Amino acid sequence: MNFFNKTSFLSGLLPLSKRWLTATFMVISLVGVNQVVMAGTSPSLVETTADVASMRSAIKHEGQFKRTFVANKASVDQQIAQAITVPMPKDGGGGYTHERHKKNYKLMYDAGMMYQLTNDVNYANYVRDMLLTYADIYPTLPLHPKRKMGKQNPGKLFWQSLNEAMWLVYTSQAYDLILSTLNKQEKEKIEKGLFRPIVKFLSVDSPETFNKVHNHGTWTTAAVGMTGYVLGELEWVEQALYGLDKSGKGGFLIQLDELFSPQGYYNEGPYYQRFALLPFVTFAKAIQTNQPERKIFEYRDGIVLKAIDATIQLSYNKLFFPINDAIKSKGIDTIELVNGVAVAYGLTKNAGLLDIAKQQDQILLTGDGLKVAQALDNKLEQPYQFKSVAFGDGNDGKQGALVIMRQNVSGEQAVLFKPAAQGLGHGHFDKLTWQFYDRGEEIVSDYGAARFLNVEAKYGGRYLPENSTWAKQTIAHNTVVVDEKTHFNGNVKKGNANHPELLFFEKDENITISSASIDSAYKDVSLKRTMALIKLPKENKSFVVDVFEAASKNKHQYDLPVHYKGHLISTNFELDTQLTSLPVLGKENGYQHLWLKAQAQPKSGLSQITWLNDNGRFYTNSSIMDGDSSLIFTQIGANDPLFNLRNENAFINRKTKSKNHTFVNVLETHGEYNPSKEFTIGAVSKVQKLSHKKVKNIDVVAISLEGNKRYLLAFNSAKNVKANQPNTFSFNGSTYQFDGRFKFFEIK
User: Fold this and answer.
1) Which of 11-25, 183-197, 203-217, 652-666 comes out lowest in average pLDDT?
2) Which residues, listed in sequence order, are joined to residue 402 by a DSSP beta bridge?
3) Angle at CA of residue 586, ends 581 and 590, nearest 5°
4) Which residues are catalytically annotated?
5) Whose CA is closest to 207, among 226, 227, 221, 196?
6) Backbone φ, ψ for residue 491 (5° rounding)
7) How far apart are CA 214 and CA 491, in angstroms?
8) Whole-angstrom distance between the N-terminal and C-terminal Cα of the chain?
9) How far apart are CA 446 and CA 17, in angstroms?
């Protein structure tokens, strides 16, 4: 795999200076000249001279691209009117120096692009002077004072090297955009004082991060590879692609091989898929521009383009599903996906992508951004098709799956079912969990991550300690907890070594159904869950059917929580409520963060819990109870001295001293509440009876509604069920038949 004969970049490095810069920050005044020059051969990293020519022509004509250019130019002009500020690194995430360096790399990129579009050298001079300032201080920088001590990823400009790599991805592009305006001395100082030291620091000096198959490794290899193209150091490019030793055991290509399933699902989940998308897509564009013969966008059957589309599919109402470590406010309008959609459209001309671009409402000043803008000006967009899909997990697509079920019943609905792999260090111990969305809102919820991103006062913007003690724990999710222990006993390595098995995923016009199992989450317990999203067109109603089986040779306590968004309205059983003081539910594994607010032991039969969501709709969870199980109502917030946790609600169905137990639940959407117009419709559940029967491999869930309306969901949970396989079962003295995996019966 040795494509180049270039000598190693190490021979060109100057020794790092040992002097310490004591000033708080350095300020350099702008050079006030009005000289206008023509660009030479730059840019040639991501954007090309042909792209620039097209963009220069476009800004002469009315349209979205010109309007974006005018707005961005005004913003850049305002910023470069100020003195250049490059502060000494001091603060963690969210602090002044951290945010200033972030702002600097974005400003350098934007100013560089303004130079290319206007030929006004003032923009190039601004970038030059800032780069020269960084070249003065970077060789003097020690490791960041707010770094995580003992960790392998410290930064210099930032508390972690990840942010350093992000800085370099943008700054290498800025340098490329103004390169033609620099003289020999300026180039030499910037490259020897800044780019070569930072590349060495991120690669040779940080082999653990550089060679790691992880989003940190993706950003780092992209940064080094892109800088290699700009500086003509193709050895760096080869190391970025194949690892420091160029063996292929590390580097960008193995990240494409290992981090994505064949369908484009990223192992760490949507939040980090979005985050890693920018270096994956941007470095791929740089490779395409500089080495088109590599056909990088065809690599692994077009995995980069598949990843862009998968990222879109992993959203609901413009927000990403918040599984694993995730900030819940991140959505399709993030710059990473805006860039991805633009690049994908530039390559494919898929009109559905224009629908997403229109929702993003952001036009990029790039060659691909121009293509999107002109297409939107010409109203070429077509509706993007969100689908019910099972994204296989793992590089082979066979390490479980992330299942999305979608339908429309008086609004868009989605079930996210998660029999997926662990997801590396950002994964949660939540095998077989689920979430439900309706009318634009989260109904059955996931906490996401315990983190206040870039809020310095909250742990420097890092993941809070409660991310480990609460958010990652099994009880923080909507899946079975055995004996108040976390899946895999909270061991990440064990979690990564084991995964659920997707038993089936099938759908028809009105039903999507999926089933999965795992035997390794607990030592002697097998877990199996089947979920179905059902639409009743005649009733304009929907249900989520949930059958969760726990089986063991020994007796255990089984807890099945439902974390919900909304206000509790009613129960059909009496509650023993804590009125004057709140006990804590447990001592560890997340239970120490739960206040015990109420509890109940419903009689055998149907129990119902109804809550009202902010979307104005009621939701009722109907459960089959055996008379021995209890229901526990909780609120997050115990053992939280710094008020780091959000006070959210849940109820837990608890079965004690049992070897085998099957939880059967039906979630019903119903009614409407409008306080403004003062009306309430359908606040009471229509479910009057619920039963479950299992004969060999066939499960039958019977749902009776008011008005003598009865339905049966029957499914065969055996492996390898053929589409034409006949199934027969009896229910209430009648015999029923169906072919294949499942059937939904309406009983007359």
Assistant:
1) 11-25
2) 391
3) 115
4) 272, 426
5) 221
6) -95, 115
7) 18
8) 68
9) 49
Rounded to whole angstroms, how far apart are CA atoms 274 and 721? Answer: 36
Rounded alpha-carbon distances, angstroms, from residue 345 to 309, 320, 353, 579: 11, 21, 6, 58
Instruction: Provide CATH code, domain 25-212.
Output: 1.50.10.100
- The three-class DSSP label of residue 13 is coil
Do the Cβ atoms of 52 and 39 come closer than 8 Å? yes
For 149-158, 306-315, 321-330, 613-622, which range has the lowest pLDDT when averaged over its residues?
A: 149-158
Distances in whole angstroms, Cα of residue 80 to Cα of each of 35, 40, 118, 181: 16, 23, 15, 18
Tokens 């050079």 -> residue = 31
What's residue 598's pLDDT?
98
| Matching CATH number, 389-685, of 2.110.10.10, 2.60.120.280, 2.40.50.140, 2.70.98.70 | 2.70.98.70
Structural domain boundaries of the chain?
25-212, 259-386, 389-685, 686-748
Burial class for 70, CB neighbours closer than 10 Å (0-12, 13-18, 19+): exposed
Residue range 259-386, CATH number: 1.50.10.100
Long-range contacts of 676-682 (CB under 8 A, 24+ apart): 682/618
Asked if domains 25-212 and 259-386 share a fold, the reply is yes
Helix residue spans in 533-635 (DSSP H): none
pLDDT of 1 = 32
Longest pairwise C-alpha distance within the chain = 93
Cβ atoms 205, 143 nearer than 8 A: no
pLDDT above 70 as % of the chain: 95
Q: Each residue of 61-112: pLDDT tens digit?
A: 999 999 999 999 999 999 999 999 999 999 988 899 999 999 999 999 999 9
Query: Nearest to residue 294, comparing CAs of 245, 338, 237?
Result: 237
Q: 478: which DSSP letter?
A: S
Give the pLDDT band of residue 150 (cuts 50, 70, 90): confident
Scored b (16 or more CB within 10 A) or e, 672-695 reads ebeeeeeeeeeeebbbbebbeeee
Rg (CA), the chain: 28
* Tally of CB atoms within 10 A around 465: 12
Q: What are phi and psi of 60, to 5 degrees?
A: -85, -10
Amino acid at 129: D
Position 350, amino acid:
N
Count of all residues that appear for the chain in the document: 748
Q: pLDDT tens for residues 557-591?
A: 999 999 999 999 999 999 999 999 999 999 999 99
Q: Phi and psi for 632 in degrees, rounded to 5?
A: -120, 130
What are the pLDDT digits (tens) for 30-55?
Answer: 333 333 333 336 799 999 999 999 99
The overall average pLDDT reported for the chain is 93
> Rounded distance, CA 10 to CA 235, Å?
10
For residue 207, which of 168, 153, 261 has the smallest C-alpha distance?
153
Structure token pair of residue 566: 């909304």
Strand-pair partners of 612: 567, 618
Describe the crossing of helices 335-348 and 367-377 by its angle, rounded to 10 degrees: 80
H or E stretch at 129: helix 121-137
